[in-house]
Write a structure and sequence with these properties.
Radius of gyration: 22 Å
CATH architecture of the largest domain: Alpha-Beta Complex
Number of helices: 5
Number of domains: 2
Largest sheet: 7 strands, mixed
Helix content: 10-25%
Strand content: 25-35%
Oligomer: single chain
Order of helices and strands: EEEEHEEEHHEEEEEEHEEEH
Structural class: alpha+beta
C-alpha cells in the first residue's frame, strides 16, 4: 500500500527511491516500474546527493523522489515517461509515480516567490515552499478537471479533439473554473463544446493525471436536449455512438476509457 505524506512519522524504516530525470522514471527491464529499494540503489555518491523529497510510505518503507540532472545508464533499466507506463502499472504504483512527478514539478515551478520574487526554501514542517521575505507559502497544487460520457439510451456522445491522433474519440473534459461547482462546470463544458444540455449526473470516479498536475473527476451524464454543434476549437467532431459500434477510444487505464467501458458493460449486462 502507499500512504502519501509530507514527512516521515517514524524513525528507522527502510527507504526506497523514485529516480526522476527530465520527467522520466527509471524502469526495470525485468520487473517494470516500481520504487527502488535502498539495497538496489545503484547510483554513485554524487548522485546520492541529488535533491530528494519525501512523498510517503510505500509498503512500510519511507519513499523519496530523487531528482537527477542526467539520465545515468543503469544496467537492466531504462527511462520511461508515465504515459508509456500507463496501463502497465497497478493502482498503487500509478499513485506513487503520479505523486512523485507532481512533487518534482511543484518544486521546480516554485523556486521563487510569485508574490515578491525572492528565492523560496523548503518548509521545515510541511510540504510547502516558504518565502522568508514576505512569509508566503506555496503548496503542491492540482488543477481539477471534470470529464464525462453523455449517454442517450444505447448511445454515448464521444468527441474528437484536434490534438488527438487521427480518428481517436474520447469523453468530454474541461477545467473547473474559479467559483464553479463540479456539476456546473460539467454542464458548462458540455454546452460550450458540443452545444447540448445534460440532465441527471452520476459520479463515477477520479484519477490523478500528472500531465502536469490535474485531478480528473469523472461522471456519467444523461442527455436532456439540443443538437450537437461543435465549438470548432477544442472539439472538431462529435457524434453519438451505439455501445457496440464505438470508434477508436482511450485505453481502460485512463479515466475516460473507464467511463466508456462502464457504459458498454451496462448495456451488455442488460442483454
Amino acid at each position: 500500500m502507499f500512504t502519501p505524506d509530507h514527512r516521515p512519522q517514524q524513525e528507522g524504516l527502510e527507504k526506497c527511491y523514485v529516480p526522476i530525470s527530465d520527467g522520466l522514471l527509471l524502469s526495470s527491464v525485468e520487473y517494470g516500474w516500481q520504487p527502488l529499494p535502498a539495497s538496489s540503489w545503484r547510483f554513485a555518491n554524487p548522485q546520492l546527493e541529488a535533491p530528494q523529497h519525501y512523498i510517503g510510505r510505500y509498503f512500510d518503507k519511507d519513499c523519496y523522489v530523487v531528482v537527477l540532472e542526467a539520465q545515468p545508464d543503469v544496467h537492466q533499466h531504462h527511462w520511461q515517461n508515465l504515459r508509456q507506463l500507463l496501463g502497465l502499472l497497478d493502482e498503487i504504483s500509478y499513485e506513487v509515480a503520479a505523486r512523485a512527478l507532481q512533487v518534482v514539478n511543484w518544486d521546480r515551478d516554485h523556486q521563487f516567490c510569485g508574490r515578491c520574487g525572492s528565492r523560496t526554501e523548503s518548509h521545515h514542517r510541511e510540504m510547502a515552499k516558504h518565502c522568508q521575505s514576505c512569509d508566503a507559502l506555496f503548496y503542491p497544487r492540482l488543477s481539477p478537471c471534470v470529464i464525462t460520457v453523455v449517454t442517450r439510451g444505447e448511445h454515448c456522445l464521444l468527441a474528437h479533439n484536434p490534438a488527438f491522433p487521427s480518428r481517436f474519440f474520447s469523453a468530454l473534459a474541461g477545467f473547473i473554473e474559479v467559483g464553479e461547482t463540479i456539476e456546473s462546470a460539467l454542464r458548462r463544458e458540455v454546452r460550450e463544446e458540443v452545444g447540448i444540455e445534460v440532465g441527471k449526473l452520476e459520479y463515477f470516479g477520479s484519477q490523478a493525471w500528472p500531465f502536469p498536475g490535474q485531478l480528473m473527476i469523472g461522471f456519467m451524464a444523461e442527455y436532456q436536449s439540443g443538437d450537437i454543434v461543435v465549438d470548432g476549437v477544442e472539439i472538431e467532431e462529435a457524434n453519438w455512438y451505439r455501445y457496440d459500434e464505438l470508434p477508436l477510444v482511450p485505453p481502460a487505464a485512463s479515466l475516460s476509457g473507464q467511463l466508456i467501458s462502464h457504459f458498454v458493460k451496462m448495456h451488455k449486462s442488460a442483454l
